[in-house]
Every structure is written in structure tokens, then in C-alpha cells.
Design a protein that fits this description.
Elements: E1 9-12, E2 39-40, E3 56-63, E4 73-81, E5 91-96, H1 106-109, H2 120-123, E6 126-131, E7 136-143, H3 146-149, H4 159-180, H5 189-203, E8 208-213, H6 216-226, E9 231-237, H7 247-271, H8 282-294, H9 313-326, H10 329-341, H11 355-364, H12 372-385, H13 393-401, E10 423-430, H14 436-444, E11 449-457, H15 469-480, E12 489-490
Parallel strand pairs: 5-6, 5-8, 8-9, 9-10, 10-11, 11-12
Antiparallel strand pairs: 1-7, 2-3, 3-4, 4-6
Helix pairs in contact: 5-6, 7-9, 7-12, 7-13
């Protein structure tokens, strides 16, 4: 799950309304099976590299609203790199990079890239299929009032600010609907899963293989719920919690993971001589920084000493969440040392959710809070789970972004009948974006679900991981459907 700041026009990827097939949940209408006309891919705008010459692109027309198959339609952008060894070809491999709100065409655009692409053992056996989810990238544009978005309180400090946040969130959603149309209310993961089956039908495939990363794992689990008989393989990397936790459990699990990140940093500093906090009690230092921030006595560091710019406790929580999530312990320790001494430089990041994030997340999870008192209780629960990190800033951003959002969460679809294949879930033990408890629940969703854990801090283990072991396990599974033994724990690199 990845969060990025957004401006007024947000490109959204992948809006497909797919034909309902056997096993689809009640209420989903039948849409005609349409084909994809393949041609050369559009040229990328600098500084982005051009798609591989082996990649072909097209669009698929789908209903905006799955419940109204004869209603308005939209086009989903799809890209394909064919298997390099047709004699060994197994089938098609679809993927989703998460976000939510991230474009997915790149997976096919650069499938043969030696760094960002797939290994030869996968490219030889699968057609790599990338697509932009509905409302994202080349599958539509989300147009919202960015000036209004900038006025929304980021961390409400009282009941009046909490209500103002709700009111402005509602007005923001209305601006998105006015600028983008009905798709704003149909960007949930269930709709995207139906889009995926429309792609399957358009490709003429009986079954698909799917590799989901981060929020893409929720889309994969929804596809398994709707179309179990259409899946050959389902690999889920850094898994979301499929049980749709409420705001309290979502923030508590995330905050406990952030607390674990602080402990991991302390453990690393105790062992690594390069740590800028070597010899110090890291957890005590972090407690001290929060105490100074609470008292209004923590300031940004400068070349010759503290500046006059105050650092709030919320800023400090955001800093810890972001830097521990990306796991660069050396840089994190250096910047904590600078904050503590008042000398040096701290590089703040802005990881507030973008608008596409809200249009998806607020339809998939029910994060609605009763009132200001409910919010304060939520913060108290988080602080109890994370006495050193206070809370997981990314998780809290998601929750607050849904307050006042007018589109109610989409009901969970009925589970279709059908036999699922073995399912592989991989997750880092200390993942701040998709905490391990949620990954455990994801593996338990499936009769033959298997969880393999990397003993490290990290997120997105298939490519963005120092250890090659999770990716090897996924590749082996995709080729053979063989999962690692129960209880597998991969050592860190």
C-alpha cells in the first residue's frame, strides 16, 4: 500500500466493467464480452522511458456500474507482453501494484526490463498483462477541487476542526463527482475484480494467474471470492487485511507495527557501528523527542543549532512512520540524532493520501467515526499500542480521509462456489503499511492458503526487497503451484 500526494487532477487507472460469469455474486449484471484491439503503445512523455517494443496496448470497454451493464461505459487501458517461449506457455499473468490509485500498465510496459521486470523463467511461460484500474492513469482522469483539498484539516485539534474536516471531505467528494462523473462511486476493489474478469474474457482465457502487491492483494482476494473457478494461481505480496477491520483495529494494528519499527531501529543501532545513535538508548531518545514536542520545545535543526521552527508531535509520528516504513535505518538514525542535538538537517516528506486513494479506500473499508470523542478514543488506543511511535501516520491519514465521504462502503459480495488453487501470501514480519496480522488473516481466507514471512522490516517483497527469497518463492509458485512449507520464515538479507 503506497501513498503519494496529489494535485487537483489525478490520473486514475483501470476502470473495467466485466461480464458476469458463473460464480459471480448476485446483483452483478451481464455485460457483453468485448475484444481488445492491440497496437503499438503510446509514447511516454519525458522523462519517463518508452515502453518496450515487445509490448502491445489496447483498451477494453466496460460498464461504469456493474449493476447496470446496459448503462454508460468506460475504457480500461490494457497492455501485454507475450510469453517468449510459446511451447512452455502456461497462460496470462495479471497484476496490480496497489496504491490504491497506482497505474498498472508499467508491469507489461517494462516486463523485460533487467531491473524492474520479470525473470526469464516467468516471461517465457506467461503473457504479462498490465492494466490501469478504473479511474486511474489511462483508464480515466479524476478531476477534483485541489484548492478545496488543501483546506482540509490534516490532524483536527478540536471538535470544530473535526466537523470542518468532515464537511470539506464531503464537498471534495462532490467536486470529484462533478468533475469526473459516476466512476467516482465505482472505484472499489470489487468493481476492479470484475474488470479483471472482463479482461480474462476478452483475452479468451479460461483462467488467469494474478500477482497482487500491497492494496492489489485486496483486489486479488475479491477476484477469488467472485471467480474462484477462473483462477489458476493467486500470489499476494504484502497483504491487506481482507476482514475489513473498522477504524479502531486498522489503526491499532498499524500503530503496533510502527512501534515494532522503533524496536527494530533500536536493535539495529545496538549491533551496527555505523548508527549515528550508537551507544544511546534509542527508545528513550524517541520518548524524549516526543516530550519536547508536546511541550513546544522541539525545533527543526540547523547548521549551527536549532532553528525557530517548531516540530509537532504529529510531525514526529509522520516522520517515524515514513522512514521506518521505507527502512533506511542509517538515515533515520542520523536525522533523529539531528533532531535531538539541534544540528543538522531533517528531510520531511508529504505522504498524505491522494484523491484516488479516498475514492477507493472509502468504498472498501468502513472507517466512519461517530464524532470527535470517538476520534480521541481512537488516538488513545493507538498510543497504547505504540508508546514510542504514538500512531501509524499512514493508517490515520486513510481513516481521516474517509470522514464525511458521502459514498458508503460497498457491501461484501457473496462468496461464489468453486475450488480455489493453493494461494501464496508473503509478508514482512515488520511491515508498517500492511501489518502481519492482516496478512495472517488473508492467508486464512483460503482453504489452501500459505503464509511465508520475511524476518525484516519491509514492504512489497517481489522487487523492492534486499532478500531474493520471497521473489524466488513467488516465481516457483507461479510456475508450479508449489508453496513453501508451513511456517516458512525467510531470513533477512
Amino acid at each position: 500500500m503506497d501513498l503519494t500526494a496529489s494535485a487537483g487532477v489525478v490520473a486514475l487507472a483501470g476502470s473495467l466493467l466485466v461480464p458476469s460469469s458463473a460464480g459471480a455474486s448476485p446483483g452483478a449484471g451481464e455485460a457483453p464480452v468485448r475484444s481488445i484491439q492491440w497496437s503499438a503503445c503510446p509514447k511516454a512523455e519525458p522523462p519517463f522511458p518508452a515502453p518496450s517494443k515487445r509490448t502491445r496496448c489496447g483498451t477494453l470497454e466496460v460498464p461504469v456500474d456493474w449493476a447496470k451493464p446496459d448503462g454508460p461505459t468506460m475504457k480500461i487501458a490494457v497492455a501485454r507482453q507475450k510469453a517468449t517461449d510459446p511451447k512452455k506457455r502456461i497462460g496470462v499473468l495479471l497484476s496490480n501494484p496497489g496504491g490504491p490509485g497506482s497505474t498498472g500498465l508499467d508491469d507489461a510496459y517494462f516486463a523485460d526490463d533487467p531491473v524492474e521486470g520479470y525473470r526469464d523463467s516467468i516471461r517465457s511461460r506467461f503473457d504479462i498483462i498490465g492494466f490501469d484500474p478504473r479511474g486511474i492513469g489511462r483508464s480515466g482522469q479524476l478531476r477534483c477541487d485541489d484548492k478545496l483539498a488543501a483546506k482540509i484539516p490534516h490532524r483536527p485539534k478540536n471538535a470544530a476542526e473535526f466537523q470542518r474536516m468532515r464537511t470539506l471531505n464531503q464537498r471534495l467528494a462532490e467536486s470529484c463527482r462533478a468533475g469526473s462523473g459516476a466512476v467516482v462511486d465505482h472505484m472499489d476493489s470489487v468493481s476492479v475484480a470484475r474488470d479483471m474478469d472482463a479482461i480474462r474474457a476478452a483475452l479468451g482465457e479460461k483462467k488467469i494467474n494474478f500477482l497482487g502487491h500491497s492494496y492489489g492483494t485486496l483486489i486479488g482476494s475479491q477476484y477469488a471470492r467472485l471467480f474462484p473457478q477462473k483462477l489458476r494461481a493467486l500470489a499476494l505480496d504484502s497483504a491487506m487485511d481482507p476482514s475489513r477491520p473498522d477504524a479502531g483495529r486498522f489503526l491499532t494494528d498499524g500503530s503496533a507495527a510502527a512501534e515494532g519499527g522503533v524496536q527494530q531501529l533500536a536493535d539495529w543501532c545496538a549491533k551496527d557501528a555505523s548508527c549515528a545513535l550508537k551507544g544511546k538508548d534509542v527508545k528513550a531518545l524517541v520518548r524524549g523527542l516526543f516530550a519536547r514536542a508536546d511541550a513546544g520545545r522541539l525545533f527543526e535543526p540547523g547548521r549551527h543549532g536549532p532553528t525557530r521552527k517548531k516540530v509537532t508531535a504529529d510531525q514526529l509520528s509522520g516522520f517515524l512512520t515514513d522512514y521506518l516504513r521505507k527502512w533506511n535505518p542509517q538515515t533515520t538514525a542520523e536525522q533523529l540524532s539531528a533532531l535531538n542535538s539541534g544540528r543538522g538537517k531533517v528531510y520531511w516528506t508529504d505522504d498524505t493520501p491522494d484523491l484516488a486513494w479516498r475514492t477507493v479506500m472509502c468504498r472498501d473499508y468502513d472507517f466512519r467515526l461517530r464524532d470527535w470523542d470517538h476520534y480521541r478514543e481512537l488516538r488513545r488506543q493507538a498510543a497504547s499500542a505504540a508508546p514510542h511511535a504514538r500512531y501509524n501516520s499512514q493508517a490515520l491519514d486513510m481513516i481521516l480521509g474517509c470522514q464525511g465521504w458521502p459514498a458508503a462502503p460497498e457491501p461484501e459480495p457473496a462468496r461464489a462456489t468453486g475450488t480455489l488453487p493453493p494461494v501464496l501470501v508473503v509478508n514482512a514480519k515488520h511491515d508498517l503499511a500492511t501489518p502481519l496480522p492482516g496478512a495472517r488473516r488473508m492467508a486464512q481466507e483460503f482453504p489452501k492458503g500459505r503464509l511465508a514471512v520475511l524476518d525484516a522490516v519491509g514492504h512489497w517483497l517481489y522487487r523492492q526487497c534486499e532478500s531474493p527469497l520471497p521473489a524466488r518463492a513467488i516465481d516457483t509458485y507461479l510456475r508450479t503451484l508449489k508453496t513453501p512449507p508451513p511456517g516458512t520464515v525467510f531470513p533477512s538479507a
